[in-house]
Amino acid sequence: MKKVFGLIGYPLDHSWSPSYFQQQFQVHGLPDHRYQLFPLKTLNDFLPLLDNIPDLCGLNVTIPYKETIIPCLDESDPRAAEIGAVNTILIRGSGPNRTLTGHNTDAEGFLRSADFSGHQSALIFGTGGASRAVCYALQKMGIRCTLVSRSGTLRKAISYKDLDDEMMSTHTLIINATPIGMYPDEGPPPPIPYHLINSHHFLYDLVYNPEETHFLKEGLKRGARIQSGLKMLHLQAELSFELFMGREPGS
């Protein structure tokens, strides 16, 4: 039986998801499964998409819809509900009997991607769905999180201008959970006092293309440990694939 999976978000020009999932379908002997991109300029196009493709069984969700997609769903699993963001949707049935269930594999993918021990406090750039997942994961480890945004108003975030000597010395884990630095608009790095970075810091960038952003390069210059989002990308995709296959991730 033909089954269709895909990715919604906008824009999707540089997504690696089709090649990854098509490879997984091939490896697991699933020639009737296919994966494609569904760039949606607005969520008004979401329900028509479901109606037009009755074989659609699952979707990944990326920027800018990880949070705003939730009201369109019938339910979310407890983790996704607590995080307040969804990156995977399971679709059961069709038409009036269709059920949409939201899941979040970003948090677990992030948690498995690196060793965060030894850090007590983290700065997280951004207030969107990726930031929510990272904050959830770190707080489960007992790491305190402070959100940072340009305005310093959303979700009780502080401003980049508030990052003084004390903040930088006490928050040794620094995570970019924004699209800043992503190809093709690699641009300048987040506006933080890089001269206060040292070998005690761990700079983690959820951006995976390029693998070494300007943000990470600034950290590397100052002896900080650095990591791109590539491993997290792979891990969250593996967990999504498990959900698509009807298995509990990690089982």
Instruction: State the distance separating the first and last CA atoms.
Output: 25 Å
**Beta-sheet strand percentage?**
15-25%
Subunit arrangement of the protein: single chain
Distinct helical segment count: 8
- Tally the beta strands: 12
Tell me about the biggest sheet? 6 strands, mixed
What integer value in Å does the Rg equal?
19 Å
| Percentage of residues in helical conformation | 25-40%
Order of helices and strands: EHEHEEHEEHEHEEHEEHEH
What fold name goes in the CATH topology slot of the largest domain?
A: Rossmann fold
Point out poorly predicted stretches. Answer: none
Please indicate the count of domains.
2
Structural class computed from helices and strand pairing: alpha/beta
Question: What is the molecular shape?
Answer: elongated
Strand order of the largest sheet: 2-1-3-5-6-4
CATH superfamily of the largest domain: NAD(P)-binding Rossmann-like Domain
CATH class of the largest domain: Alpha Beta
CATH architectural group of the largest domain: 3-Layer(aba) Sandwich
pLDDT average, as an integer? 95
What would you say this structure looks like, in words?
It is a single chain. Helix 1 links the parallel strand 1 (3-9) and strand 2. With 251 residues, this protein is of the alpha/beta class. It folds into two domains: 3-104, 3-Layer(aba) Sandwich (Rossmann fold); 107-231, Rossmann fold (3-Layer(aba) Sandwich). The chain is 29% helix and 22% strand. The strands form two sheets. The chain has a six-stranded mixed β-sheet with strand order 2-1-3-5-6-4. The protein has a six-stranded parallel β-sheet with strand order 9-8-7-10-11-12. It is built from eight helices and twelve strands.
